[in-house]
Amino acid sequence: MSHRILILGGTTEARQLAGRLAARPDVELTLSLAGRTENPVAQPVPTRAGGFGGAEGLAAYLKDNQTDLLIDATHPYAARISANAAKAARLAGVPILALRRPGWERQEGDRWTEVDGAANAAVALGPAARRVFLALGRQDVGVFEAAAHHHYLLRSVDPVEPPLGTPGVDYLLARGPFDEADEHRLLIEHRIDVIVSKNSGGEATYGKIAAARALGIEVIMIRRPVLPTVPSAAGIVELLAMVDHSLRPVAERGV
Ligand code: NAP
Questions:
Q1: Whether residue 162 has a cis bond before it, omega within 30° of 0
Q2: Fewer CB atoms near the end CB (10 Å): N or C, the chain?
């Protein structure tokens, strides 16, 4: 008998997890993406895209598709979908597991200023004009229009449309991972004196944080949002073991 699993994805780990689970003959997998990236990276499994219509919509999807397990492998800052996932699992009576990538820890030499939310990051840049690397998704950068006296370097996967309504912006289109040496060069080339970043965790985007430390550049770090408490793992191997346990018949599990 095959088990139906829905993975809420959009992260590298979700794609890797999907690849690993797709190899199992007893699993029928669907990967769900928010559908905002214009040319998403190819996924190794059947994929659907777009919102479900809140927690109730997701609960209905889980029931309609007779889903046996929901896995929340979304980005650590995607708080709404994670909250919806926890609620939908409860409503539909479907077990849920989450992949919660650990955040970066402050190291000696790091010059971090921690704030809650992008709007507070814009304020924390201060009154004097600075050259800012905005390492944020395009849906998070609008609030920096309120701090138009700074010069911004904005890197995104898709073009920022409409562009930011401030005079000094350099746009850069690129998709990670970005290594430390390249980030080091980028920071020097653009004469960056402060970075605004999320504490995304993982290796793929850590290069800029390490490069900032080496160059003594300040990082305004947007704190992580609070996510619901559900059974979770920090990495794929641990999560796969939890999936195994969750899919075993109750008598075998001893729960
Ligand atoms: P969100 O605010 O938690 O989700 C907003 C809505 O999008 C959800 O309520 C849901 O709509 C839909 N949605 C999100 N993920 C989905 C998925 N996997 N499948 C189907 N529908 C999904 O999340 P977000 O808008 O994606 O992002 C919020 C923050 O996280 C932003 O700051 C963003 O930059 C960051 N983020 C970063 C990355 C990255 O760097 N790789 C990736 C994702 C997000 P319904 O309520 O209609 O179901």
A1: yes
A2: N
Ligand 1 center–CA 77 separation, angstroms: 8
Q: Which atom of ligand 1 is nearest to the CA of 36?
A: 26
pLDDT digits (tens, 9 = 90+) for 63-106: 999 999 999 999 999 999 999 999 999 999 999 999 999 999 99
**Whole-angstrom distance, CA of residue 59 vs CA of residue 88:** 4
**How far is CA 96 from its chain centroid?**
18
Q: Is 86 in the pocket of ligand 1 (CB under 6 A)?
A: no
What is the value of pTM for the model shown? 0.89
Instruction: Write out pLDDT tens, residues 107-129.
Output: 999 999 999 999 999 999 999 99
Enumerate domains of the chain plus CATH numbers. 3-102+226-253 (3.40.50.720), 112-222 (3.40.50.2000)
Distance 140 CA to ligand 1 centre (A): 12
Ligand 1 touching residue 47 (CB < 6 A) = no
State the CB neighbour count (10 A cutoff) for residue 199: 19
